[in-house]
Amino acid sequence: MATVSRVVNNNPNVKPQTRKKVFEAIERLGYRPNAVARGLASKKTTTVGVVIPDISNSIFAEVARGIEDIANMYHYNIILSNADKKKEKEIRVINTLLEKQVDGLLFMGGIVTEDHIQAFRTSSVPVVLCGTKDENNTMPSVDIDHEKAALDAVNVLIASGHRDIAMISGTLQDPANGYARYQGYKKALEAAGISVRDEYVRVGNYRYESSVDAVKHFLELSPRPTAIFSATDEMAIGAIHTIQDNGLRVPQDIAVISVDNIRMASMVRPTLTTVAQPMYDIGAVSMRLLTKLMNKESTDNMQVILPHEIINRQSVAQS
Amino acid sequence: MATVSRVVNNNPNVKPQTRKKVFEAIERLGYRPNAVARGLASKKTTTVGVVIPDISNSIFAEVARGIEDIANMYHYNIILSNADKKKEKEIRVINTLLEKQVDGLLFMGGIVTEDHIQAFRTSSVPVVLCGTKDENNTMPSVDIDHEKAALDAVNVLIASGHRDIAMISGTLQDPANGYARYQGYKKALEAAGISVRDEYVRVGNYRYESSVDAVKHFLELSPRPTAIFSATDEMAIGAIHTIQDNGLRVPQDIAVISVDNIRMASMVRPTLTTVAQPMYDIGAVSMRLLTKLMNKESTDNMQVILPHEIINRQSVAQS
DNA sequence: CTGTTAGCGCATTCAC
DNA sequence: GTGAATGCGCTAACAG
Hints:
Structural class of chain A: alpha/beta
Strand order of the largest sheet of chain A: 2-1-3-4-5-11
Number of helices of chain A: 11
Strand content of chain A: 15-25%
Helix content of chain A: 40-55%
Number of strands of chain A: 12
Oligomer: homodimer
Order of helices and strands of chain A: HHHEHEHEHEEHEHEHEHEEHEE
CATH topology of the largest domain in chain A: Rossmann fold
Shape of chain A: elongated
CATH architecture of the largest domain in chain A: 3-Layer(aba) Sandwich
CATH superfamily of the largest domain in chain A: Response regulator
CATH class of the largest domain in chain A: Alpha Beta
Distance between the termini of chain A: 73 Å
């Protein structure tokens, strides 16, 4: 019994002969170890919980793939739960995952409140925030610098001569995608001595459809913006099409830039100039960080900021 | 101890007073039931395993969302594992999931071989195939009729006057997306008295990039096809752009139709005419079927075929 | 190196 | 209705 356990767990204290005999018996009897019993006895489930806003959103799906690949590499499985950025559902999901005795938790979502942190604390397993972070930076997290990414994007526009630059923002309640990217936009303009005009900013919901109204609004303005910075690629693509559907050209009449670099960005015409967010890496690195935490390995850097990168394509004219 | 168990499990044989007292104690002590111990004792984990080719592929991600929503509704959690359509990895993943004592298994993948079925049989938990099926239809499954979907798509082309119809196929080794859709193409042509020409068929790998070469090949043919049927939307979008990049127009010079209806289909210009495959429903229905199987409820129909639907957009001229 | 023992935290008998 | 006892299948000391 114990010897079998040793063999199955690769414990070196077994004579090669007996090891072989055990393997044969396992084969012959079709024995399959019961991971639940093992989990109960060892207090390790080799399973991590992943709270995700929406797996059908390609951005999160890409992150999830990074998570799963690294999890798999370290022999963890992941329990995936959609929470739609609803705080109540997020808390509920966290508790369920904790009941299932996951060895660690990966949280991607919008806002990380005190209540979230409270829920995390009721358990002793490590938690890593993935593509987001908490206000006071008290928790381990992996993300990009959204503000800087937005600032860089707008600077691309400024560098190619634009001064009438509009923005399609995400909700300003969201500290990462929403507020931080808006701040980046503002700071870029201010640094260039361009005043920020309220009518040049419209709030969307990150999705394609939501940029249609924003662009229609911009087209009626005078002076009409010569460039649009969109907080997400999806809204940027919606913007490009709306501009085209109104008889104007991208980038000749209006340039468009955004942040994300989803697959679709290289599939539209014109292809979309954007600031790439390393989605896969955000997932992979946060899972890797979680494995370290679960192993109680020391880690120097608990708040990882991954680099972003400007991808020059066709929706902004090269200067 | 036993009473607490009854309360937590909603067993009616508890006096309301004691129930209340137990709940208070739970609250006060911050007691959290251990689902692993419960799983060991009850032989139920309220967890189902999901084998998926690639969660970062939007088609599968959409199916996964359907699965998770219904799973959540029935208080199941899902363990998600990518297997990249690699048979060896699929089998390995199935076994890991079974070790974790999942109550059921959802399998989406390419080919379901005897070895897969063998792996399923080593456990007694129910399995549902999701977006695929086995050759002999011996296993519960939920899918669309890929051949009919392809046939309907090609008939749209024929109905609008096309006779020189090329196809960008997926790999013919894949019985569902690949072979079945190719069969549909052939049958549609044959039914219309159009002969199938080998040089009108090119095999891609389902992805955007792979259709570029195919289209270039078609453009050099004489007679040049006036329409292209693509096995997937992604390849169709690649086709549209390649056609446009070569100075031709869609649909005026070459019409394009495909099967899937991914989000992107309505985001390209021209928007893509395609046969919609109900991704979300495939996931939802297969999860629902699995819950029935796990509860040993009787189910009339073990091989569900969901309807597909032609979505007329702009990449085929309306006749 | 290998076998024996005692839990892990629950659900599930079975008595009361 | 409620409490006490047993075991789910395994790991982790502990002897030998």
